[in-house]
Amino acid sequence: QVQLVESGGGLVQPGGSLKLACAASGIISSIYAMGWYRQAPGKQRELVAAITNIGSTIGSTNYVESVKGRFTISRDNAKNAVYLQMNSLHPEDTAVYYCNAQLATAQNKYLELWGQGTLVTVSS
Question: How many CA atoms lie within 13 A of 40 on its CB side?
Answer without folding.
Answer: 8
